[in-house]
Write a structure and sequence with these properties.
This protein is an alpha/beta fold. It contains nine helices and ten strands.
């Protein structure tokens, strides 16, 4: 009995020693495509699809270039349009990773959003062609049927904001055209097709070589807050989060502030 027990003990010791001499390779390893970087954050690759309000065209194009430079191999694709149109596209299954809206209302319409963050504010301004050939002096000129006036359609953020300022001023606008987004309204002015349009002050700044801006007091009644969010079904969730973080970073804020956006 003693010899049998001793033999069993020696066998157990031998088995333990053999186990200690196994391969140096761990039993499991992380795939290179999902391995974290040296900083501990997931490595980025592939494409990031960003749906953004038309008024963000200039700033987000710049932020996209800066982001790509900081993350070689990553491609940022943009779809710029009216926030209402973008919300509809996302709800119909468009493969978006990030949505940046010119108004909380349109962000709220998206059923696939994560937790939005308001990242900038924007204010309306009267845009007129260089030299102000229509002799526009203020918001009251938008009621003059002899003037050619462009406004954004009421379902898009710049149009909804325009309705608020006219209500606050007790005026009824007489637009000759309702445009699909703020860039379309601005184009009417820059091409001298209308005497004036209501656009965001950031749009006036972006086209300063072609248009002039006129501030008006009622603009404070319709300040637009811009929310941004990753989408819960984002094809590239790591890329989506990284891009949103970049927009919210000090570098992102510097680009947005330089373009005339205000802090939220």
């Amino acid at each position: 009995m003693f010899r049998r027990t001793a033999f069993a003990a020696l066998a157990a010791v031998a088995a333990f020693a053999l186990a200690g001499c196994g391969s140096d390779t761990p039993a499991s390893s992380t795939s290179p495509s999902t391995s974290p970087s040296a900083s501990g954050t997931p490595s980025l690759s592939g494409e990031i699809n960003v749906f953004a309000a038309a008024s963000l065209t200039g700033t987000f194009t710049q932020l996209g270039k800066d982001f790509e430079a900081a993350h070689p191999g990553v491609k940022v694709n943009f779809s710029f349009d009216a926030s209402s149109a973008l919300a509809q596209q996302i709800n119909k299954g468009a493969p978006a990773d990030v949505f940046a809206s010119a108004a909380p209302k349109n962000m709220d319409q998206v059923t696939d959003k994560g937790t939005p963050t308001n990242f900038v504010k924007n204010t309306l301004e009267i845009a007129v062609p260089k030299g102000n050939p229509g002799h526009i002096t203020g918001l009251k000129d938008f009621t003059d049927k002899s003037k050619k006036i462009a406004l954004c359609a009421p379902e898009v953020p710049c149009g909804a904001a325009a309705q608020k300022v006219f209500k606050a001023a007790g005026l009824t606008a007489q637009p000759d055209t309702l445009e699909k987004d703020v860039k379309a309204a601005l184009t009417k002015v820059s091409l001298d097709e209308v005497d004036a349009a209501l656009v965001y002050k950031t749009d006036v700044l972006s086209a300063k070589d072609k248009v002039e801006g006129i501030e008006f007091p009622e603009a404070s009644k319709a300040v637009n807050e811009y929310p941004i969010a990753t989408l819960t079904k984002a094809p590239n969730p790591n890329g989506a989060k990284a891009f949103v973080d970049y927009v919210l970073s000090d570098k992102g804020k510097a680009v947005l502030t330089a373009a005339g956006f205000d802090a939220p």
